[in-house]
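Predict structure. Chain length: 176.
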Amino acid sequence: MAKARPRSVVSALVVALPLLVVVAVVVRGALRPSDGSRAQAEAPVAGPLAGYAAPQADLPAERLHERVDGAEEYLRSQGCSRLLAWDLADPAATLEVLLFEDPEGAARVLSRDAGPSRTAGPGDEASADAQSVLFRRGKVYARLVADPDSPADPERLLAEARKVDRMILDDLGREM
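Prediction complete.
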């Protein structure tokens, strides 16, 4: 009977081992934040641009695909860390503000979207036409594109882009 006891202790340990592993994993997870929580805590914090309501989209780099339809990998490769987007009523347009890790990434995306030519406009560099104003201010790239079903007055669109540029300087400047 003395030999039966060590067997039952060993059997009990073998049976309990998987349970101990599960408990250790659960306790470890409860004590340490998940990667998603850590990434969320490290994301830059900025409120909406002054004068605008909360954005319809406020996406970290991992969720760009929800808005940019196929360009997520390219934008991330250029250092895009966040996208804010609004649908404006006056002028009827879509505004996207993309935040980059450095000004060079924002400049490369502007160049890809607008080509090599630049026109007068807001920011450090810009490209404007009758239906859109694209510009870069430091590490921020902004796209203001008129609604194709309700074209905006080009001067009104440019004035709105200048307003956005001032807001970027005031509100997002601390992130630049």
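Summary: The helical segments are 4-31, 35-42, 65-68, 72-77, 103-114, 154-172.
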